[in-house]
Design brief:
CATH topology: Immunoglobulin-like
Shape: elongated
Helix content: under 10%
Strand order of the largest sheet: 1-2-3-7-6-5-4
CATH architecture: Sandwich
Number of strands: 7
Distance between the termini: 33 Å
CATH class: Mainly Beta
Number of helices: 1
Structural class: mainly beta
Strand content: over 45%
Radius of gyration: 18 Å
Order of helices and strands: EEEHEEEE
Number of domains: 1
């Protein structure tokens, strides 16, 4: 299973993660799908600056379908809770191969349009995660 995250939005601590699950063992019926599953994750708590700037940070999900899944982002740990969104979250991705030519001008202001976006998916739920600190067992 590989998990990839996009850049976090400013000051909100939100990241959207894509979880790709590929079957490794034919007898493992839980991971026989070759599809992707998008998970809208909202992280709250104290972040280290390098986590916000590093799109290639290692992310681990433990018990993603449980009542309180655990998310490890680099060396920080978060405990989650599934929640319904207020309305629908619409997730876009940067469109690859966009060319800032004259055909790509804003029709109103006649200036080049920035990054083009394309629809990726929609969601009415998200995983709310709060930072937790682990203590050694005595």
């Amino acid at each position: 299973m590989s998990v990839h995250g996009n850049n976090p939005s400013q000051n909100t601590g939100e990241k959207t993660f894509t979880k790709s699950s590929n079957s490794v063992n034919e007898s493992d019926s839980e991971w026989e799908s070759d599809g992707e599953e998008l998970i809208h994750v909202e992280l709250t708590g104290i972040f280290q600056d390098e986590l916000k700037r590093n799109p290639d940070i290692q992310i681990k999900f433990i018990g993603i379908e449980s009542e309180h899944p655990i998310v490890q982002l680099g060396n920080q740990v978060f405990e989650g809770e599934h929640s319904q969104t207020l309305g629908t979250s619409v997730i876009f991705t940067k469109k690859s191969g966009t060319d800032p030519t004259s055909a790509n001008l804003d029709p109103v202001f006649q200036r080049p349009i920035g990054d083009s976006l394309e629809y990726l998916c929609r969601s009415d739920s998200k995983l709310l995660c709060k930072r937790v600190f682990l203590n050694a067992k005595s």
